[in-house]
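name: query_chain
kind: protein
chains: 1
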Amino acid sequence: MELDELKASWRVYDEKISRQQQLNEQMFLSMIKDRSKSNLAKMGQKIRLAGTIMVGTILFFTAAILGNPFDFTNWYSYVPMVLYLVLGLFALVIIVKEHRQLNQVNLSRENLRDSLAKVIQSHEQTQRILGKVWLLFMVAGFLLGVALVSRNFDAYGMAKTVTFLGLQVGIILVLYGLAKWVFRAFEDPQAEALKESLKELDQLKQLL
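structure:
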């Protein structure tokens, strides 16, 4: 009889431990879910801001091409502005795609890990593409400077024109180096937080 009572007590204790573990797991997953929702919301704000900047860029250079405020007389002088316009449209498409991806994220318990992994992969790919677009923007800026200086080549002369272009190249290289340093020094905090949540989910899976 004592053995049966001991077995019954052990079963009750084991059930309590199991329920406590399930409760802890649910609380842990709920915490990660809430934290991930907050980070996704901040990522959405940033991507919308980037979209707004791209729309402004597209409108500005569309107006510049149609209105010709720089008084260009040759068709090739418009190439930098067309490049800006094409890059802006391309970047906007990437940004809209990323925004839709964020809106479609389903952070249910069953697919929480897969959703976070997909978001991180998509976000990093978008950041790499936008980084290359930023580099091409600087190239377009240099070409625009060439087009602007070439209008007054006769007035400036060779020496002054080369000096202006050299200064512009220097400024672009400094900006590019500064941008790379900023990206390395200040990593995307939301993406890093999502990676940390993904790591915690993997650790939980190993314990279960």
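note: The first helix runs from residue 2 to 67.
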